[in-house]
Amino acid sequence: MNGMSFLRKSLLTILGVVCYLGVGAQNLTVQGVVLDAADNSPIPGASVLVKGTTRGTITNFDGQFQLSAATTDVLVVSFIGYESQELPAVENMTVNLFENTQSLADVIVIGYGTVKKNDLTGSVTAIKPDDMNKGLVTNAQDMMQGKIAGVSVVSNGGTPGGSATIRIRGGASLSASNDPLIVIDGLAMDNAGVQGLANPLSMVNPNDIESFTVLKDASATAIYGSRASNGVIVITTKKGSKTGKMSLTYNGNVSVSTVGETLEVMDGDEFRSFIKDLYGEDSDQAKALGTANTDWQDEIYRAAVGTDHNVTATGNLAGAPFRFSAGYTMQDGVIKTSEFRRVTLSANYAPSFFDDYLKVNANIKAMHAKNRYADGGVVGN
Q1: Which neighbouring-strand residues pair with 277?
Q2: DSSP bridge pairs for 209
Q3: Is residue 32 within 8 Å of 24, Cβ to Cβ?
Q4: Element of type H or E holding 342
Q5: Burial letters for 268-277: b for 16+ Cβ neighbours within 10 Å, e otherwise?
Q6: pLDDT tens digits for range 341-350
């Protein structure tokens, strides 16, 4: 009898616990909205997950969501560029997300979209302007030298405005081109280069570059095709800020380049003495010698002056961010008659319509460049 009583009490206790758990973990339908804490605008595409599970949903165009959850569940709300929020599940929720500039730095542009660094399976390197080389920068490749692991940038002779040999993880072919594909603001450049321009990267003013992203492996080929088999360099230019105030900035610099060391050669008197000792003073070779004593290295080299000037205007025009820049670059070569001149104009305007449902990004870029190489004939003044 005592045994039956104990069993009956145990069953009632277990049933009571189960009923209590059932009451304490009631299911409910959560309806909520996710807003930007700065301006209370809806955030479409935000992720709403039940913590510790794979159950979840995303917000619609109005930032609204609906989800079934238990009263004991915790919801994790997140979106790229914002700090995640963990909140207990209730029937009606309003979630305010705050911007997180650190998480924005962890987003990389790869071809036709963006991806977080943690989710990226391919080999990708991104550098910002603060990581780039300083000083007078004529071409975009000058900003990458020595900054990206696995990327070799070697100047092709040092001609002002000249090209460079860029290799990503070394060469892969003995007969075909090993040059990487260059993509500027989503526009892929022809691997054959630009006719009449020694360096296609001269088309971009270095002052307008926001970041470099280098795709090093087969994932680049999957995005851009076989022309990207040697890697891809994605160049993203600067754009206006929606929250930025009207501003006008100028930056410029001047540089002087000289030949560090010349070749040690004989002067006129030493050369004449050498010829006479070799052929004799009465030889035809000795009679053909003149009396000049010209240092031809001094005649062809010079102190080369370079300068770069950039003016940038940013702000809001009719409620939309814009950026306009103009740049002038002048670089003389250390060999007389060699020079590079470039004028660039860039304009970006990004209006949005229908409560940010339709966004337009317009880019206009213009460039005029002039290359002159060292003359092969007589060097003038």
Answers
A1: none
A2: 237
A3: no
A4: strand 339-349
A5: eeeebeebee
A6: 999 999 999 8
Give the dihedral of Cα atoms 165, 166, 172, 178; nearest 10 deg.
-60
- Considering only CA atoms, give the Rg of the chain: 33
What lies within 8 Å, CB to CB, of 296 at 6+ separation is: none
User: What is the side-by-side strand order in the sheet with 64-70?
Assistant: 64-70, 27-36, 92-97
**For the chain, percent helix, then strand, then coil, each to nearest 5?**
20, 40, 40
Chain segment 191-241, per-residue pLDDT in tens: 666 666 667 777 888 888 888 888 877 666 677 777 778 888 888 888 887
Do the beta carbons of residue 204 and residue 144 sit within 8 Å?
A: no
* 41-80 pLDDT per residue, tens: 889 889 999 998 888 899 988 889 998 888 889 999 998 8
pLDDT, position 116? 54
Intra-chain end-to-end CA distance of the chain, in Å? 123
Q: Are 346 and 324 in contact (CB under 8 A)?
A: yes
CA 212 to each of CA 99, 227, 343, 375: distance values in angstroms, whole numbers, following the listed order: 24, 19, 22, 35
**Phi/psi at 230 (5° precision):** -100, 15
